[in-house]
Please model this.
Amino acid sequence: MSLSTQAFLIGARDTTPLIIAAAPFGLVYGALAINQGLSEALVMAMSIFVFAGASQFVTIALLASATAFPVILATVFIVNLRHMLYAASLMPQLAKVSAWLRVPMAFWLTDETFAIVSNRVSQAKDDKHFTAYYLGSAIFMYSSWLFFSWLGMTLGQKIPDIKSWGLDVAMVIAFVTIVVPLLKNYADWACALTAGVSAILTYHWPHQTGLLFSSFIAIAVGVALGYKNNTVITAIKTKEKTKNV
Amino acid sequence: MSDWLLIAGMAVLTFVPRYIPFGLAGKVTIPPLISQALSYVPIAVLTVIIVQTTLIRDGEVVLTVQNHHLIAAIVAFFVSLMTKHQFLAIGLGLVSFLMMKWLSFG
Model:
């Protein structure tokens, strides 16, 4: 077995725990989407061509509240902006990867694969098998997501009142467990608090425009407070450096 | 038909933010202010979604124990905060949701 095949398989293996965590969300996505009145082809097409759990959930939730398509698209874009940060932080590793291979790698970038790959990068900065490892993680994640979406869709049709079980609570709980570990300093907490308060004040705005408005305000608060925070930290670090010299 | 347009639009708007930095890798670096703003995106967007789907039920703000989504989210919040254990937080959140549902039927 070549070393890159090995890296591919290790990438898949390392992603397994995160796939187990994502499986219920694939199931719930499929069940909610089919009970939302989307055709089977549309439910699967979203998993095949969009492949972004949070965006797919948000879309189903927004469709349920009869949101206008442009607002859904704007929300999807905003929700996906975090991928831009993920991708940006992997730029040094990508510099050596061929241009055509970057296209599928970008398409397959998820929270899960990013978490696994960035962990490997932090252990070995100059990894010759980075691409193989990345693809192993990403392709396993992609095929699992398609399988669990399909399974959820099938079960959702057999159990029509699955919607009344409140399965959407799994999504909310998952989001909570994604956000909490991100709250590290007071700027993060202020950002979350602003988002929460603004969400309540603006929930009645038409077409969920309150979601976009609240997100922008919260990001601005985070940047304003975090910037000050960062400047202080940088200042302290510079001071320490000068001391050592 | 328009549903397919929605999915096509979603596919493009999901792919573009993922691809831009990959495409630019080795050519440019992101300004610090932009990358800092991007780092707050998950907290901001997900918190709005969490609050709007838990506190608001059927178009009204519901702050009672009848709001099972809210109870489950609060349980998940504290478990996650205290243990940093994602599986445990999701599990206990779901259990508390089912318990509340079961109790309200009894």
Chain A has a mean pLDDT of 86. The CA atoms of residues 139 and 180 of chain A lie 28 Å apart.
